[in-house]
Amino acid sequence: MRRPLCSSLLLLLSLASPAAAQRRGDQARLSFGIGLGYNGATDIWHVDAQELIDNLARDTASIFRNVRPTIGITFIGVYYPDPHWGLTGEAHLIGLGYSDGCMLRSSSGSSQNQQVCTSINGNDSPGTAVAMTVGGIYRPFAWTDIQPYLRANIGLLVSQQSAIRMKGTFTRPDSQGVDYYVYQDKHPASVAPAAGLAAGITAFVGRSYQMRFEVKDNLVSLEHVLAAVSFPSAEPRSERRLHHVFSMTVAVEVVLERKRGRRY
Fold first, then answer.
1. Would you give per-residue pLDDT tens digits along the chain (264 residues)?
2. Which alpha helices (H) appear in 46-138, and where do they start and end?
3. Phi/psi at 139 (nearest 5 deg)?
4. SS3 state at 8
5. What are the Cα distances from residue 27, in Å, to 83, 145, 186?
6. pTM of the model
Protein backbone atom coordinates (compact mmCIF):
# COMPACT_ATOMS: atom_id res chain seq x y z
CA MET A 1 0.00 0.00 0.00
CA ARG A 2 2.86 2.39 0.77
CA ARG A 3 4.54 1.97 -2.64
CA PRO A 4 1.50 3.03 -4.78
CA LEU A 5 0.79 5.88 -2.33
CA CYS A 6 4.36 7.20 -2.59
CA SER A 7 4.32 6.85 -6.39
CA SER A 8 1.09 8.83 -6.66
CA LEU A 9 2.38 11.55 -4.37
CA LEU A 10 5.65 11.87 -6.33
CA LEU A 11 3.73 12.11 -9.62
CA LEU A 12 1.55 14.91 -8.30
CA LEU A 13 4.54 16.74 -6.86
CA SER A 14 6.29 16.59 -10.23
CA LEU A 15 3.35 18.44 -11.76
CA ALA A 16 3.88 21.32 -9.34
CA SER A 17 6.73 22.76 -11.40
CA PRO A 18 7.65 26.35 -12.23
CA ALA A 19 5.97 25.83 -15.61
CA ALA A 20 2.64 25.53 -13.84
CA ALA A 21 3.23 28.96 -12.34
CA GLN A 22 3.16 30.39 -15.86
CA ARG A 23 -0.42 29.20 -16.30
CA ARG A 24 -1.83 30.51 -13.02
CA GLY A 25 -0.97 33.76 -11.32
CA ASP A 26 -3.20 33.63 -8.24
CA GLN A 27 -3.14 31.85 -4.88
CA ALA A 28 -5.48 30.73 -2.12
CA ARG A 29 -5.12 32.89 1.00
CA LEU A 30 -8.01 31.67 3.18
CA SER A 31 -9.80 28.30 2.97
CA PHE A 32 -12.02 26.03 5.04
CA GLY A 33 -12.87 22.41 4.41
CA ILE A 34 -13.97 18.99 5.55
CA GLY A 35 -12.14 15.75 4.91
CA LEU A 36 -12.71 12.03 5.16
CA GLY A 37 -9.89 9.59 5.74
CA TYR A 38 -8.32 6.58 7.38
CA ASN A 39 -6.67 6.36 10.81
CA GLY A 40 -4.22 3.51 11.24
CA ALA A 41 -3.59 1.01 14.05
CA THR A 42 -0.95 0.85 16.74
CA ASP A 43 -0.09 -1.24 19.83
CA ILE A 44 -0.78 0.25 23.27
CA TRP A 45 0.02 -2.16 26.10
CA HIS A 46 0.51 -5.82 26.97
CA VAL A 47 0.38 -7.67 30.33
CA ASP A 48 1.80 -11.20 30.40
CA ALA A 49 0.74 -12.49 33.82
CA GLN A 50 -2.67 -11.17 34.81
CA GLU A 51 -4.66 -13.40 37.17
CA LEU A 52 -8.35 -14.10 36.57
CA ILE A 53 -10.08 -15.09 39.83
CA ASP A 54 -13.16 -17.26 40.29
CA ASN A 55 -13.55 -17.70 44.07
CA LEU A 56 -10.59 -20.01 44.86
CA ALA A 57 -9.83 -20.81 41.22
CA ARG A 58 -7.05 -18.70 39.72
CA ASP A 59 -5.85 -18.65 36.13
CA THR A 60 -3.10 -16.62 34.50
CA ALA A 61 -3.75 -14.84 31.23
CA SER A 62 -1.85 -12.71 28.72
CA ILE A 63 -3.94 -9.71 27.73
CA PHE A 64 -3.29 -6.80 25.39
CA ARG A 65 -4.91 -3.73 23.88
CA ASN A 66 -4.33 -2.11 20.48
CA VAL A 67 -5.73 0.91 18.68
CA ARG A 68 -7.71 -0.43 15.74
CA PRO A 69 -8.09 1.25 12.32
CA THR A 70 -10.98 3.71 12.05
CA ILE A 71 -12.54 6.19 9.64
CA GLY A 72 -11.51 9.76 10.40
CA ILE A 73 -13.25 13.11 9.82
CA THR A 74 -11.29 16.35 9.68
CA PHE A 75 -12.33 20.00 9.75
CA ILE A 76 -9.49 22.28 8.68
CA GLY A 77 -8.93 25.99 8.11
CA VAL A 78 -5.84 27.56 6.54
CA TYR A 79 -4.76 31.19 6.30
CA TYR A 80 -1.65 32.47 4.48
CA PRO A 81 -0.56 35.95 5.58
CA ASP A 82 2.55 35.26 3.48
CA PRO A 83 2.67 33.57 0.03
CA HIS A 84 4.62 30.63 1.45
CA TRP A 85 4.02 30.51 5.22
CA GLY A 86 0.60 30.10 6.79
CA LEU A 87 -1.41 29.20 9.88
CA THR A 88 -3.74 26.21 10.30
CA GLY A 89 -6.45 25.12 12.71
CA GLU A 90 -7.86 21.60 12.76
CA ALA A 91 -10.34 19.36 14.51
CA HIS A 92 -9.58 15.72 13.69
CA LEU A 93 -11.83 12.83 14.75
CA ILE A 94 -8.97 10.39 15.24
CA GLY A 95 -11.19 7.76 16.85
CA LEU A 96 -8.84 5.63 18.94
CA GLY A 97 -11.17 2.66 19.04
CA TYR A 98 -9.65 -0.32 20.84
CA SER A 99 -9.20 -3.99 19.99
CA ASP A 100 -8.47 -6.37 22.89
CA GLY A 101 -6.96 -9.82 23.17
CA CYS A 102 -6.69 -12.50 25.86
CA MET A 103 -5.04 -15.93 26.03
CA LEU A 104 -5.01 -18.22 29.06
CA ARG A 105 -1.52 -19.34 30.03
CA SER A 106 -2.73 -21.71 32.78
CA SER A 107 -6.10 -23.31 33.39
CA SER A 108 -7.68 -24.37 36.67
CA GLY A 109 -10.75 -25.67 34.88
CA SER A 110 -12.84 -22.61 35.82
CA SER A 111 -15.59 -22.05 33.29
CA GLN A 112 -15.96 -18.45 34.48
CA ASN A 113 -12.35 -17.54 33.80
CA GLN A 114 -12.50 -19.21 30.40
CA GLN A 115 -15.62 -17.23 29.48
CA VAL A 116 -14.08 -13.96 30.65
CA CYS A 117 -10.94 -14.48 28.55
CA THR A 118 -12.95 -15.58 25.52
CA SER A 119 -15.20 -12.51 25.72
CA ILE A 120 -12.18 -10.18 25.92
CA ASN A 121 -10.39 -11.82 23.00
CA GLY A 122 -11.34 -10.04 19.79
CA ASN A 123 -13.51 -7.48 21.55
CA ASP A 124 -13.68 -4.16 19.66
CA SER A 125 -14.83 -0.87 21.12
CA PRO A 126 -15.60 2.35 19.22
CA GLY A 127 -13.59 5.50 19.78
CA THR A 128 -14.57 9.17 19.74
CA ALA A 129 -11.28 10.92 20.52
CA VAL A 130 -10.82 14.32 18.87
CA ALA A 131 -7.50 16.10 18.36
CA MET A 132 -7.92 19.90 18.30
CA THR A 133 -4.72 21.55 17.12
CA VAL A 134 -3.18 24.68 15.62
CA GLY A 135 0.07 25.02 13.73
CA GLY A 136 2.07 26.31 10.83
CA ILE A 137 2.19 25.36 7.14
CA TYR A 138 4.74 25.92 4.36
CA ARG A 139 4.14 25.70 0.60
CA PRO A 140 7.15 26.24 -1.68
CA PHE A 141 5.11 26.96 -4.85
CA ALA A 142 2.42 29.50 -4.00
CA TRP A 143 1.18 30.19 -7.55
CA THR A 144 0.98 26.71 -9.08
CA ASP A 145 -2.12 24.70 -9.90
CA ILE A 146 -0.92 21.89 -7.62
CA GLN A 147 0.74 22.98 -4.39
CA PRO A 148 2.76 20.59 -2.19
CA TYR A 149 3.13 21.57 1.45
CA LEU A 150 4.41 20.56 4.87
CA ARG A 151 2.69 21.42 8.13
CA ALA A 152 3.17 20.85 11.85
CA ASN A 153 0.52 21.21 14.54
CA ILE A 154 0.15 20.94 18.30
CA GLY A 155 -2.83 20.96 20.65
CA LEU A 156 -5.03 18.73 22.79
CA LEU A 157 -6.53 15.26 22.48
CA VAL A 158 -9.99 15.03 24.08
CA SER A 159 -11.29 11.52 24.80
CA GLN A 160 -14.28 10.08 26.68
CA GLN A 161 -12.94 6.53 26.66
CA SER A 162 -10.38 4.97 28.99
CA ALA A 163 -7.30 3.34 27.47
CA ILE A 164 -6.87 1.05 30.52
CA ARG A 165 -10.39 0.02 31.58
CA MET A 166 -11.01 -3.55 30.44
CA LYS A 167 -13.84 -5.94 31.12
CA GLY A 168 -15.04 -9.37 30.12
CA THR A 169 -18.32 -11.19 30.74
CA PHE A 170 -19.45 -14.58 31.98
CA THR A 171 -22.79 -16.31 32.51
CA ARG A 172 -23.98 -17.52 35.90
CA PRO A 173 -25.78 -20.88 36.34
CA ASP A 174 -29.07 -18.94 36.38
CA SER A 175 -28.22 -17.64 32.86
CA GLN A 176 -27.61 -14.10 34.10
CA GLY A 177 -24.76 -12.26 32.39
CA VAL A 178 -22.17 -10.64 34.65
CA ASP A 179 -19.44 -8.11 33.88
CA TYR A 180 -15.95 -8.91 35.11
CA TYR A 181 -13.65 -5.87 35.21
CA VAL A 182 -10.03 -6.89 34.85
CA TYR A 183 -8.98 -3.23 35.17
CA GLN A 184 -11.07 -0.31 36.32
CA ASP A 185 -10.63 3.39 35.66
CA LYS A 186 -12.52 5.91 37.79
CA HIS A 187 -11.73 8.78 35.43
CA PRO A 188 -12.15 7.54 31.84
CA ALA A 189 -12.44 11.00 30.25
CA SER A 190 -9.14 12.74 29.59
CA VAL A 191 -7.49 15.75 27.98
CA ALA A 192 -3.90 15.14 26.87
CA PRO A 193 -1.30 16.73 24.56
CA ALA A 194 -1.35 15.91 20.85
CA ALA A 195 0.85 16.86 17.92
CA GLY A 196 1.27 16.01 14.26
CA LEU A 197 3.51 16.34 11.22
CA ALA A 198 1.88 16.21 7.79
CA ALA A 199 2.76 16.36 4.10
CA GLY A 200 0.31 16.80 1.30
CA ILE A 201 -0.87 18.61 -1.81
CA THR A 202 -3.72 20.93 -2.71
CA ALA A 203 -5.16 21.28 -6.21
CA PHE A 204 -7.61 23.88 -7.51
CA VAL A 205 -10.83 22.45 -8.96
CA GLY A 206 -12.48 25.81 -9.62
CA ARG A 207 -12.32 29.47 -8.72
CA SER A 208 -13.72 28.79 -5.24
CA TYR A 209 -12.79 25.16 -4.49
CA GLN A 210 -9.71 23.05 -3.98
CA MET A 211 -8.95 19.42 -3.10
CA ARG A 212 -6.47 18.39 -0.43
CA PHE A 213 -4.69 15.05 -0.06
CA GLU A 214 -2.62 14.59 3.09
CA VAL A 215 -0.70 11.95 5.02
CA LYS A 216 0.01 12.68 8.68
CA ASP A 217 1.84 11.23 11.64
CA ASN A 218 -0.36 11.93 14.68
CA LEU A 219 1.49 11.86 17.99
CA VAL A 220 -0.95 11.05 20.83
CA SER A 221 -0.56 10.40 24.55
CA LEU A 222 -2.30 7.26 25.90
CA GLU A 223 -2.40 5.53 29.29
CA HIS A 224 -0.35 2.32 29.63
CA VAL A 225 -1.01 -0.49 32.11
CA LEU A 226 2.34 -1.08 33.83
CA ALA A 227 1.63 -4.21 35.88
CA ALA A 228 -0.99 -6.84 36.71
CA VAL A 229 -3.45 -6.30 39.57
CA SER A 230 -4.09 -8.78 42.37
CA PHE A 231 -7.89 -8.63 42.43
CA PRO A 232 -10.70 -7.77 39.97
CA SER A 233 -11.95 -4.21 39.40
CA ALA A 234 -8.72 -2.70 40.71
CA GLU A 235 -7.22 0.41 39.15
CA PRO A 236 -3.81 -0.62 37.76
CA ARG A 237 -0.59 1.35 37.91
CA SER A 238 -0.32 3.27 34.68
CA GLU A 239 1.54 6.02 32.91
CA ARG A 240 1.14 8.05 29.75
CA ARG A 241 3.25 7.23 26.71
CA LEU A 242 3.40 8.70 23.23
CA HIS A 243 2.16 6.74 20.21
CA HIS A 244 2.23 7.29 16.46
CA VAL A 245 -1.12 6.99 14.66
CA PHE A 246 -0.76 7.48 10.90
CA SER A 247 -3.66 8.89 8.91
CA MET A 248 -4.59 9.70 5.29
CA THR A 249 -7.20 12.34 4.44
CA VAL A 250 -8.91 13.63 1.32
CA ALA A 251 -10.66 16.98 1.83
CA VAL A 252 -12.79 19.42 -0.15
CA GLU A 253 -12.26 23.08 0.73
CA VAL A 254 -13.98 26.35 -0.01
CA VAL A 255 -11.54 29.10 -0.93
CA LEU A 256 -12.80 32.35 0.59
CA GLU A 257 -9.95 34.60 -0.54
CA ARG A 258 -7.64 34.45 -3.53
CA LYS A 259 -4.91 36.92 -4.41
CA ARG A 260 -3.50 37.70 -7.83
CA GLY A 261 0.20 36.89 -7.93
CA ARG A 262 3.12 37.59 -10.23
CA ARG A 263 3.33 35.70 -13.52
CA TYR A 264 6.74 34.40 -14.53
1. 445 444 444 444 444 444 343 444 567 789 999 999 999 999 999 999 999 999 889 999 999 999 999 999 999 999 999 999 999 999 999 999 999 999 999 889 999 999 999 999 989 988 889 999 999 999 999 888 899 999 999 999 999 999 999 999 999 888 899 999 999 999 999 999 999 999 999 999 988 999 999 999 999 999 999 999 999 999 999 999 999 999 999 999 999 977 765 443
2. 111-120
3. -125, 120
4. helix
5. 8, 9, 51
6. 0.83
